[in-house]
Amino acid sequence: MYNYGVNGSKDVFAFTHESIENHSITAYEHENLDNPSGDGYIITSSTVRTKEINQAFDLPPMALSLDDLASVLTLDGQDYDIAQSGVDYAFIFIGMEASYNNRPLLGWSIFAPPSGTSVNIENLNLAEFIDESVLESKVNSLSMSVTARDYGGIAGYEDYMKRRPTRQPSTFNDPEYAQAKTKTVQLTVDDLSYSKSALSNLIPTQF
Predict the structure, then answer these.
(1) What is the rounded distance in angstroms from the CA atom of residue 70 to the CA atom of residue 170?
(2) pLDDT of 200
(3) Is 205 a residue whose pLDDT tops 70?
(4) How many CB atoms lie within 10 A of CB 52?
């Protein structure tokens, strides 16, 4: 059952039953980016899972600036570091999608630690999967996104990656996953043909 309040102005109701393992409560903010070339948005969310539903919840957003998060998308192999004191980020998720008339033709994604070296677009060799001339003639929209996630009970990236191969849907009822904070930035550029130089234009300055 889903129930929601807008702008925090109303109580949110739930029901209890012996078969319910957890309630999931999420506060989120959605902000559109000023992007004349297409769409862009920021989503920030904070979630807690609990059996003790009859209480008030404090769900502060992730304290991570837009500039710091977008710095991961330089696409030129630069070093980045979004690690903050007291925050053990579980992962950064980076994704790219090339599409034609809203139909995806190519996509890739990676998990990354909170500090490291950004993807270098020049090192992407897609010829093993699809001829780049096909992409250049068909693609008319490119999207890039980056997400940072922090689980309150996970001790950073290495801990998360050790758990991930054996993770099941029921895992998210475990105490380690009881609190989560996420921030996502996505930018889409329409009327743009695929090329490495076009991808290079999807850089943090556009955020």
Answers:
(1) 32
(2) 60
(3) no
(4) 9
Q: Are 148 and 182 in contact (CB under 8 A)?
A: yes
Q: What residue type is 41 in one-letter code? A: Y
Check if the beta carbon of residue 171 is closer than 8 Å to that of residue 126: no
Whether residue 59 contacts residue 46, with contact meaning beta carbons closer than 8 Å, is answered with: yes
pLDDT over threshold 80, residue 136: no
Nearest by Cα to 161 from 93, 87, 61: 93
Judge contact between 45 and 26, C-beta under 8 A: yes
Report yes or no on whether pTM surpasses 0.70: yes
Place of tokens 């929601």: 4
Average pLDDT over residues 62-68: 88
DSSP per-residue string spanning 40-80: EEEEEEEEEEES--SS----PPP---HHHHHGGG--B--EE
For residue 202, pLDDT over 70 is answered with no
User: If you average pLDDT over residues 114-122, what whole number do you get?
Assistant: 83
Q: From 182, 189, 106, select the one nearest 147 (Cα to Cα).
A: 182
Strand partners, 76: 120
